[in-house]
Design brief:
Layout lengths: L1 H13 L15 H34 L43 E7 L3 E2 L6 E8 L5 E4 L5 E7 L2 E5 L11 E4 L4 E7 L21 E9 L2 E2 L3 E5 L1
Parallel strand pairs: 2-11
Antiparallel strand pairs: 1-3, 3-8, 4-7, 5-6, 5-9, 9-10, 9-11
């Protein structure tokens, strides 16, 4: 009986006290559920990426690289082998040759005045014409460094545009076949001496005749005659 009472006493102490509610397990919050879903979704994406990468790598290893590769093209095409005909290449166009210098044997120089006779106050206009008598365009220097307007009265040297010229200028012109370049010089009815020495004498009038000769380099024109009144 003593042991039975002891067992009953032990059973009473192990039972929950009357009126005490046992603790319930807490449910995870919504934030915890959200974080768990994100972790699971991220892991799933990683697995898919690894699977796709493995398939691409395997395809590249089997079929070769499908990406375009940079190819260095030589500046000049490869020389054709013997017996072959190069295709798809155009023949190089010849470089334009420079315009040749005019052959003075094919050039003509002409001299003329704007009038055959001049009154006491009129100034003669002297004209030089250079013509290309060749069959191709050519270049010629028609600058004042090469031109000379020479006036004579019989054997008397009256005037030269070279006498008092300080700095002659070059002027290169391309003249087409059969075409001409023209230059004019108004003569002031004055006299000059070589070296531009001083001279006070004036050309005589009163119906005196003069000749005009145009020169380009060593090429001279036929003489043109005119009269001063």
């Amino acid at each position: 009986m003593a042991n039975k009472g002891k067992q009953q006493s032990t059973a009473r102490t192990s039972a929950p006290a009357k009126g005490v509610t046992p603790m319930k397990k807490r449910k995870p919050s919504a934030a915890v559920y959200r974080r768990r879903r994100q972790v699971v979704f991220g892991a799933l994406l990683l697995v898919i990426a690894l699977m796709v990468g493995g398939v691409v790598a395997l395809t590249g290893a089997l079929g070769g690289n499908s990406e375009p590769q940079a190819v260095s093209t030589p500046d000049t095409p490869a020389a054709p082998t013997q017996g072959s005909v190069p295709t798809g290449t155009a023949a190089p166009s010849p470089s334009a040759s420079p315009t040749p210098v005019c052959d003075f044997n094919l050039m003509t120089v002409a001299a003329k005045t704007d009038k055959p006779a001049y009154g006491p106050e009129e100034m003669p206009l002297l004209t030089m014409t250079i013509t290309n008598g060749g069959t191709a365009p050519c270049e010629v220097n028609v600058g004042t460094s090469q031109m000379e307007y020479l006036l004579m009265s019989g054997s008397d040297r009256i005037f030269s545009s070279k006498d008092c010229q300080t700095d002659g200028e070059d002027l290169i012109k391309t003249i087409q076949p059969g075409k001409s370049e023209t230059a004019n010089f108004p003569w002031q009815r004055n006299r000059t001496l070589e070296g531009c020495a001083a001279i006070t004498a004036k050309p005589g009038g009163g119906g005196a005749y003069y000749t005009f000769e145009a020169r380009l380099g060593n090429k001279a024109s036929p003489k043109a005659a005119f009269q001063l009144n």
